[in-house]
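Same chain as my last thread, 641 residues:
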Amino acid sequence: MTPRSGLSQTVIQAMTMAGLNLIKQALSIYDSELRLVVANERFREMFEIPDHLMRPGASFEETIRVIATRGEYGDVEDIETLVKERVERALAFEPHYMEREREDGRWISVEGSPLPDGGWVAVYTDITNVKRQEELLRGRSEELSETLLKYSEDLASANRKLESTVIALEEAKRLVSDSEARMRLTTEMMPAHIAHVGPDYRYTYSNRRLSSVMPGRPRNIVGTLINETLGESAYARLEPHLETAFGGDPSVFEFTDQDSQRRIRVALTPDGEAAERRGVYILSMDITQEAQTRAALQQTRRRELAAQMTSGLAHDFSNLLTIILGTQSKLEKMDLDGAASELVDTTLTAARRGGTLLNQLADMTGQRAPKLARHQIRDLLLNLQSLAKPALDGQVSLMVKNYVPNRALLLDAGVIQDSLLNLILNSRDALNGVGQITLTVDVVQDIWLRLEVRDDGPGFSEEALAKGLDPFFTTKGSEGSGLGLPMVYDMAKLMGGDVRLSNTGEGAAVSIRLPLRWARGAEAPGLVLLVEDNPDLRGAIREMLTEQGHTVIETAIVEEALALLENVPDISLVLSDIKLEGVATGVDLARNVNGSLPLFLMTSLPEDDPLYVRAAALAPVLRKPFVAKDLANFLNAEDSE
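reply #2:
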C-alpha cells in the first residue's frame, strides 16, 4: 500500500522527535540490550545528560553511573553497587511507578512500561508542586478551604496533563514498536545474514538467515560467541577482517565455507566512533552461483584472448608443417640409403605430431559452447566404461562408484566423458600396467556435482601438483603433449566449475567439480513468459506454445520480463531469446532467474559466438529456425533411461 504522504523517513523521524520534545515530561526509551533508542530534550535537561549519552545506542549503565556520580540519588556510599542494582531491575522489564525526592529538594515521579520485544519506555514527571500542595493541604486543611479547592483544581488539571502525556507516550511506544516490526520484517526477507557483534565478540543482533546462507549453523544466535557459532574454519577466514573492522576500517571479502562448500561474500562495518566503539555490523551473502557464472565468464574471456593470440601462429605453423610434410614425402619416394630413410621417417612423424598438437590447441582455445541436455549419470558412466575398457590392460581395473540420486541432470555429456576418459588414461599410464582406478561421482552440499578419478600409483610429484594444469607441462617426456589436464581444466572452468589435483597417500586424485543443475521433468501446460524482440517471430512462437496448451504472456526486453516475474506469481516457465533489445540479454535474465523457474533459451547466433557460449553454460539452448515439434521436444524432453 502506498503511503498517503510523500514524506521521507528522515523527515518523519525529525517530526516525531519534534513532537516528543514538546512533551513537558522527560522521556527515554531503551531496548532489550539496555541501549538508548530515543530520548527527548526534557530528559537531557532534567538529568543534565551529556551529549554522547543522548545518542541512540548509548549505555543505560553508563547513564546511571553519570547521574549517580552527580548526586541524583543522594549521598551514595557505593555507586557501582547502586548501578548494578538499577541495571538488574531494568533487565527485569517489569511495569513500575515510583516517586522520589531529588538532591535539590524537588520531587519526580518515574513510570516505566515494558515494550513487546524487550526494553522499556520511561516517563519522568516533575511533581514538586503536587507534593507541596499535598503538604499544604495537610497543614491547613481546616482554615484554607478555598485554597484547598484551588489546589484541588490545579491537581486535577495536572492529572489531566499527565493523562495527555501518557496518551502521547503510548502513541510514541506504538510508533517505535511498528517501526521495529517493519525493520525486523525487512531484515528477515532479505536473502542475506545481517548481524551485529559487540566488543565481547557476542552477537547482539541477528536476523534468522545465517542457516540459509551458511547451512549447518544455528538460527537463533543472539548472545553466542561468533567463533563458536561459525566454526573454526570459517572464523579463521573472518577473524583478520573482523579485527580490521573493530579497528575502525570497513572490510569486504569473499571466502569458501569449507563446511557447506558455498562461496560467501562478507561486508563488515564498524559501529560507532573510535572513542566509543560499540561493535561491528556484519552482512553475509551466498554468492555461489554468481561465482560459478563469473568463473565461466572469465574462462570464456581467457579462451577468446588465447584464440586471438594463437590463431595467427597456428596458421603460419600449419603452412610450415604442410611444406615440411610435402618435402619429406618427396624424399620418402626417392631411393635413399637406410640412414637417410630413417631420418625422413623421423621428420614425418614429428611433423604429423606437430599437426596433432595444433589441432589440440585449436580445441582448447577455440569457442566450444556447452551443450546442456538431460542425462542420467548412470547412463553416462555405462557409456564411459564401454569406451575405457579396451584401453585398459588386463591388470588395470576400473571401479565406478555412483552416489548421485536417480534424477536427470543438465549436463554436457560429451565433454564430461572426454575429460573423464582423459583422466582414466592418465591414471593407466601412471600405474605402469598394474593397479586400480576408481571413479567416484557424488553430490556436494546440493551445490556441486563432483567427479573424482583416483589411482593407487605413485601419485603426483610436487612439481606436477603445482604445474599440472599449466599448458605443455608433462611428466611423460616426448610422449606427452602437456594439454590433457589443461583441457580438462578448461572444460570445468567453462562450465563454472574447477579442477583440483591431490595425493591421497595411496596414489593420485583429480577432482572435477561442476555446478549441480537438476533437470526438471516434462513441463505441464502452464503460464509461459515469452521474451522475444522480433514481433513476427514472437507471434509465431506464441501460436506454437498455445497449441501445446500453454498460456502466454510476452515482452521484448529483459527489464519488463523481470518485472513480470516479480509481479505475476503463476509463471511456470520462461522461454527467451539470447540477444534482445537494449543492453540486457537472455544471459542476464538466466542469471536473475537463477534456477527458481525452468528457463530455456533460443538463438540464431553461431555456436562459437561468445554470447552463445556464456548462455549455453547456464541453460539449454534451442537453435533457430525451429518448428512446433522441435519446440515441444525441447521443452518436454524426458529423462534418458
